[in-house]
Amino acid sequence: MKTKAQLEFQQTWRGSLSDYVTAIAWSPDGCCLAACSAAGEVMLISLLGFQSTLLQSETGYSIDCLAFSHDGQFLAIGGQDGQVKIWLLQSGLPKLITTLENKSVWVDRLCWNLTKHEIAFSLGKYVQVWDADTQQVAATLNFEASTVLDLDWRRDGKYLALAGYQGARVWNATDWDAEEEALDIPSATVAIAWSPDNQFIAEGNLDSTLSGMEWGNPAPWLMQGFPGKVRQLA
User: Fold this and answer.
1) How far does CA 198 lie from the centroid of its chain?
2) Residues 94 and 194 grouped into a single domain
3) Model pTM score
4) How would you class 90 by CB atoms within 10 Å of its CB: exposed for 0-12, middle for 13-18, buried for 19 or more?
5) How far apart are CA 46 and CA 31, in angstroms?
């Protein structure tokens, strides 16, 4: 009988794309895995029978980010050509419902609201929020200080945080026209994340620091001494 230390993983499926994989994401129910490549391919893999569907063939432009909506109804991708494509996954084969054209911009960050069918994606110094239900732009946010380096929705969907040069900015999703909250640092923030209970927000910074703040408390705390910049947070 094998002990826990002796248990081995067994490969149950293997697939490939024509170029290196740039991003992967699980559907919320864990039944599908999406993967994209530097060649512009997007593969949707159903774990029921391990069937794969190629949603987009080679375009010559890389796909760099993808994400499922909170309920798994939609899959969105973005990449080097500036397009954001969104598929409806409710029944049968995936159906492409929209292609958002953004010329001369590289879309490398996108994130779904965790309570609504709203997706936020980077457009250089701007972030656009698009509503999949109305198929309209809900907001266009100007970061001003630099290219947007990361973004994250608060878990209740009420706030959207953007990161870049000189820290982060947080917008109120119930009133996009309200003045944003500034979380300033003397460096640049390259990664940002909300805590699951919505109480805290953390920033990974270019100067090898990690800063955090309790929402509603203006006094941040700072962790120093990392050997390099903090590029990812969870």
Assistant:
1) 18
2) no
3) 0.91
4) exposed
5) 6
Domain that holds residue 178: 127-234
Q: Give residue for tokens 């492409």.
A: 96
Q: For residues 83 and 137, what is the distance between their CA atoms, to the nearest angstrom?
A: 15
pLDDT in tens, 97-129: 999 999 889 999 999 999 999 999 999 999 999
Q: What is the DSSP string of 61-122?
A: S-EEEEEE-TTSSEEEEEETTS-EEEEE-SSSS-EEEEEE--TT-----EEE-SSSSEEEEE
Q: Please state, rounded to an integer, the average pLDDT across all residues of the chain.
A: 91
Which pLDDT value is given to residue 12?
78
- The closest of 115, 110, 47, 37 to 77, measured between CA atoms, is 110
Within a domain: residue 160?
Answer: yes
Q: What is the pLDDT of residues 26-73, one digit of tens each?
A: 999 999 999 999 999 999 988 887 777 877 655 679 999 999 999 999
Q: What is the pLDDT of residue 1?
A: 57
83/144 same-domain check: no
Asked, for residue 113, whether it belongs to a domain, the answer is no
Instruction: State the virtual CA torsion across 153, 159, 160, 165 in degrees, nearest 10.
Output: -120
From residue 135, give the alpha-carbon distance in Å to each of 100, 103, 117, 119.
10, 19, 10, 11
Cα separation, 65 vs 197, in Å, equals 26
Please state the rounded mean pLDDT for residues 185-197: 95
Let me know how many helices (H) and strands (E) the chain has, helices first: 0, 18
